[in-house]
From TrEMBL, chain A:
<feature type="domain" description="Phosphagen kinase C-terminal">
    <location>
        <begin position="125"/>
        <end position="367"/>
    </location>
</feature>
<feature type="binding site">
    <location>
        <position position="191"/>
    </location>
    <ligand>
        <name>ATP</name>
    </ligand>
</feature>
<keyword id="KW-0808">Transferase</keyword>
<dbReference type="GO" id="GO:0005615">
    <property type="term" value="C:extracellular space"/>
</dbReference>
<dbReference type="InterPro" id="IPR014746">
    <property type="entry name" value="Gln_synth/guanido_kin_cat_dom"/>
</dbReference>
<dbReference type="GO" id="GO:0046314">
    <property type="term" value="P:phosphocreatine biosynthetic process"/>
</dbReference>
<dbReference type="InterPro" id="IPR000749">
    <property type="entry name" value="ATP-guanido_PTrfase"/>
</dbReference>
<dbReference type="GO" id="GO:0005524">
    <property type="term" value="F:ATP binding"/>
</dbReference>
<dbReference type="InterPro" id="IPR022415">
    <property type="entry name" value="ATP-guanido_PTrfase_AS"/>
</dbReference>
Automatic annotation (TrEMBL), chain B:
<keyword id="KW-0496">Mitochondrion</keyword>
<dbReference type="GO" id="GO:0005743">
    <property type="term" value="C:mitochondrial inner membrane"/>
</dbReference>
<keyword id="KW-0808">Transferase</keyword>
<dbReference type="GO" id="GO:0004111">
    <property type="term" value="F:creatine kinase activity"/>
</dbReference>
<feature type="binding site">
    <location>
        <begin position="324"/>
        <end position="328"/>
    </location>
    <ligand>
        <name>ATP</name>
    </ligand>
</feature>
<dbReference type="GO" id="GO:0046314">
    <property type="term" value="P:phosphocreatine biosynthetic process"/>
</dbReference>
<keyword id="KW-0067">ATP-binding</keyword>
<dbReference type="InterPro" id="IPR036802">
    <property type="entry name" value="ATP-guanido_PTrfase_N_sf"/>
</dbReference>
<feature type="binding site">
    <location>
        <position position="223"/>
    </location>
    <ligand>
        <name>ATP</name>
    </ligand>
</feature>
Length: 381, 415
């Protein structure tokens, strides 16, 4: 368990004013919301597994702000965190997820038949397509708080479930601490290998403890379906392939996830889910669908256009560099994905990406020919 | 049972006797039959082995000494402040080894850690401190600087002299475990005491959260400013939490006596000056320390100290004196001599680069300091450095003249 947080009783010796963090230079969602009064109320509580308010906010105290994005600044240590500390987390969620209210209900839709189109994004522009989400196994603490025993139990259950996958989903598990040099190199070449987090946002929350114990990568033989075990969440599930057939990627994603869920249920385990927050994950930013559907797409002209940011905003899309969340674009190739996670279903989010990227490519083609894109400007979604 | 990752073995006896017990961490009352209690013991041992860290690729003192049996015995304990074994060893689990030195691999969260986790800390201390046995031996404290012989080095070779140690405030948790309020209390107590220093020790405190740009630049130029630790050895132990809250630097107006507040320890105390007058550096060191101690005692506080372990600090490697006395010294010829390491070893000295513990020497200038911390007094260690550095300078002079040098006989530990 992270430091300073298992001794909640000790802290009560000091007044809440004495313990309240200095957030005067901070700019993250937690810092915007956590008042002295709120801290005073919440510091007396703990979840059944012993997670406290200081555990929730440590990453936000240690990391005042990020240059590119407004970070969340808090994490969950277990499923109950979202209940026990709802006074803090509800407003953080509302602020982060576009006004999502504590009474709102989240729709889950993993039926890929409901996706219209998406199989014909122009491969001259769309280099690859990918959908990822996360899943947590109910009954176990989350990465910031879990013990080694719990983490190993999550790994063991995951390996057993994944070993039962068949057909085009049949695959193999590579434990980080046991892989051979050859396996490691192959995983690097495939761009599958994840490494110990270096971001202080993650390290400060305690999720890198005991690395690389009980961490690993599973992927199918076709290398189109990949599961990360015990990185930032219990499971990160990724479907990906080269080219622009997002429909195929999403279909495999839904099939795979549904199958994995039923395999866990056969073993008397279920995923953390409720009708208000959808799928429960470590970071409040990933609640709901936990879904990021994205493409690597060439937009050298559009990206230099003054209207680029505005278009993305209207389409509810975000851009990243092709190295992931903390990188910049190289050679005009962008990672374009949905900005939302909660309050929209999986199908709705992927639909936004498919329709949005189609439009971006159309705009790029216009600009290549020196034509205007004014008539293509979308309305706010 | 899913929530019973921490069952205290000491509860088993009252359980077997049919009494109700109140479990510290869960504050629930449970009441078991003897048969159920038996299976709990087995269950507990199984749970412990599920939690035992994988140390097969590790090379640090903690990994060398932590057995599954010791882990099972200690894993459910906590100090009165709530610090646990897992927290103590986390840094050693996360950092398998350092390329140049065998790291300790564990820390204390408070003074009581050294008692509650003695089954692990005692062998770690013994390994790190050349066989010093905390159960059988006493550590001598001696801050009488007048006992030092010679101690003024040839300044054609010695560029600067420095002595540092650490001190912890009894009753407050150490940096890996302290709460924000405790850390702020440490700052308050120390800064208040330091404001009472007079004469050549008169000085000023610069809080990391409040210093101006100008003050910051001056402290950087003086080589006084410390920054948030980047070493994973430290960050994994939790000591960088809430940075830079309640951290700061105090120094006297003459810039020869400096105190770091709430970095790796509650306080790090440093006496330094350019040139080779180690005797004066140590004299100021002792005088300053004693004066600070008097000032905190006036206010009802004291330093963590006991006769087994001397001064108590966060890292077991800094127990005893916590003292590192060193010089920056020009040894371009000796530094290239193949016998250099052996000479240092026998003199009980270590070399570092002039950037500190994780750096290499530049331009033949070495940081030479004492290897040992525990089992010998401050006076003894500083004398060792003085005698040793004088010997090294003699070697350098001989090599300059083309004369041969001798590797000295190893000096005795635990005088």
């Amino acid at each position: 368990m992270p430091f300073g947080n298992t001794h909640n009783q000790m802290k009560m010796k000091y007044s809440s004013e004495q313990e309240y963090p200095d957030l005067s230079k901070h700019n993250n969602h937690m810092a915007k919301v956590l008042t002295q009064d709120m801290y005073k109320k919440l510091r007396e509580r703990a979840t059944p597994s012993g997670f406290t308010i200081d555990g929730v906010i440590q990453t936000g105290v240690d990391n005042p702000g990020h240059p590119f994005i407004m970070t969340v600044g808090c994490v969950a240590g277990d499923e109950e965190t979202y209940e026990v500390f709802k006074d803090l987390l509800d407003p953080v969620i509302e602020d982060r997820h576009g006004g999502y209210k504590p009474t709102d209900k989240h729709k889950t839709d993993l039926n890929s038949d409901n996706l219209k189109g998406g199989d014909d994004l122009d491969p001259n522009y769309v280099l690859s397509s990918r959908v990822r989400t996360g899943r947590s196994i109910r009954g176990f603490s989350l990465p910031p708080h879990c013990s080694r025993g719990e983490r190993r139990a999550v790994e063991k259950l995951s390996i057993e479930a994944l070993a039962s996958l068949s057909g085009d989903l049949k695959g193999k598990y590579y434990a980080l601490k046991n892989m051979t040099e050859a396996e490691q190199q192959q995983l690097i070449d495939d761009h599958f290998l994840f490494d110990k987090p270096v971001s202080p946002l993650l390290l400060a929350s305690g999720m890198a403890r005991d690395w690389p114990d009980a961490r690993g990568i599973w992927h199918n033989d076709n290398k189109t379906f990949l599961v990360w075990v015990n990185e930032e969440d219990h499971l990160r599930v990724i479907s990906m392939q080269k080219g622009g057939n997002m429909k195929e990627v999403f279909t495999r994603f839904c099939t795979g996830l549904t199958k994995i869920e039923s395999l866990f249920k056969e073993r008397s385990h279920e995923f953390m889910w409720n009708e208000h927050l959808g799928y429960v994950l470590t970071c409040p930013s990933n609640l709901g669908t936990g879904l990021r559907a994205g493409v690597h797409v060439k937009l050298p002209n559009l990206s230099k256009n003054a209207k680029f940011e505005e278009v993305l905003k209207k389409l509810r899309l975000q851009k990243r560099g092709t190295g992931g969340v903390d990188t910049a674009a190289v050679g005009g190739v962008f990672d374009i994905s949905n900005a939302d996670r909660l309050g929209f279903s999986e199908v709705e989010l992927v639909q936004m990406v498919v329709d949005g990227v189609k439009l971006l490519v159309d705009m790029e083609k216009r600009l290549e020919k020196g034509q205007s894109i004014d008539d293509l400007m979308p309305a706010q979604k | 049972i899913a929530s019973t990752y921490n069952r205290d073995l000491s509860l088993i006896v009252p359980l077997l006797q049919g009494q109700k017990v109140n479990h510290r961490l869960h504050s629930c009352n449970f009441f078991l039959s003897p048969i159920a209690a038996h299976s709990h013991i087995i269950f507990h041992l199984c749970l412990c082995s599920a939690e035992f860290p994988d140390l097969r690729k590790h090379n640090n003192c903690m990994a060398s000494n932590l057995t599954p049996a010791i882990y099972a015995k200690l894993c459910d304990r906590a100090t009165p402040n709530g610090f646990t074994l897992d927290e103590a060893i986390q840094t050693g689990v996360d950092n398998p080894g350092h390329p140049f030195i065998k790291t300790v691999g564990m820390v204390a969260g408070d003074e009581e850690s050294y008692e509650v986790f003695a089954d692990l800390l005692d062998p770690v201390i013994k390994e790190r401190h050349n066989g010093y046995d905390p159960r059988a031996m006493r550590h001598p404290t001696d801050l009488e600087s007048s006992k030092i012989q010679s101690g003024h080095f040839d300044e054609r070779y010695v560029l600067s002299s420095r002595v540092r140690t650490g001190r912890s405030i009894r009753g407050l948790s150490l940096p890996p475990a302290c709460t924000r309020a405790e850390r702020r209390e440490v700052e308050r107590v120390v800064v208040d005491a330091l404001s009472g220093l007079k004469g050549d020790l008169t000085g000023k405190y610069y809080s990391l959260t409040q210093m101006t740009e100008k003050e910051q630049q001056q402290l950087i130029d003086d080589h006084f400013l410390f920054d948030k630790p980047v070493s994973p050895l430290l960050t994994c132990a939790g000591m960088a939490r809430d940075w830079p809250d309640a951290r700061g630097i105090w120094h006297n107006n003459e810039k020869t006596f400096l105190i770091w507040v709430n970095e790796e320890d509650h306080t790090r105390v440093i006496s330094m000056e350019k040139g080779g007058n180690m005797k004066r550096v140590f004299e100021r060191f002792c005088r300053g320390l004693k004066e600070v101690e008097r000032l905190i005692q006036e206010r009802g506080w004291e330093f963590m100290w006991n006769e087994r372990l001397g001064y108590i600090l966060t890292c077991p490697s800094n127990l005893g004196t916590g003292l590192r006395a060193g010089v920056h010294v020009k040894l371009p010829l000796l530094g290239k001599d193949p016998r250099f390491s052996k000479i240092l070893d026998n003199l009980r000295l270590q070399k570092r680069g002039t950037g500190g513990v994780d750096t290499a020497a530049v331009g033949g200038v070495f940081d030479i300091s004492n290897l040992d911390r525990l089992g010998q007094s401050e006076v003894q260690l500083v004398q060792t450095v003085i005698d040793g550095v004088n010997y090294l300078i003699e070697c350098e002079k001989r090599l300059e003249k083309g004369q041969d040098i001798k590797v000295p006989a190893p000096i005795k530990l635990f005088k």
